[in-house]
Amino acid sequence: MKRDMFTCGLDAALAVIGGKWKPLIMFHLAHDTRRYGELKRAIGAVSHKMLIQQLKELEVDGLVHRVDHKEIPPRVDYSLTEFGQTLANALVPLCEWGTAHATEVSEMMTNREARTR
């Protein structure tokens, strides 16, 4: 996509991290290099297929670095690239907002579920 295809910077950023799992993957990789199993446990509800797909997309986009150690049992490490770290840093204020407003968001989600029943 060309730069002029985005309506604003937020539009461009969301094109990269769109979806439910990519921001969480980046959050966990921002703190340290992680193995696949560590990421799966940290995120929890994500399926194997979806986690692999999201990691591959982040790798292709140049945000995540993958190292296959060619060992048995398999050992693959994931970490953020420098480019990925810049995006992870941009997610920090969003994480802080979520932490500060977790109670309100939880109530909002409960109310939303009640309205859609």
From TrEMBL:
Xref: InterPro entries: HTH_HxlR, WH-like_DNA-bd_sf, WH_DNA-bd_sf
Any Pfam family hit: HxlR
Ranges where the HTH hxlR-type domain occurs: 8-106
Molecular function in Gene Ontology: DNA binding
Signal sequence, renumbered to the chain: none
Keywords on record: DNA-binding, Plasmid, Transcription, Transcription regulation
Transferase found in the keyword field: no
Coiled-coil ranges per UniProt: none
PANTHER family to which the protein is assigned, alphabetical: TRANSCRIPTIONAL REGULATOR (PTHR33204:SF29), TRANSCRIPTIONAL REGULATOR, MARR FAMILY (PTHR33204)
Protein name per Swiss-Prot or TrEMBL: Helix-turn-helix domain-containing protein
Organism: Paraburkholderia caribensis
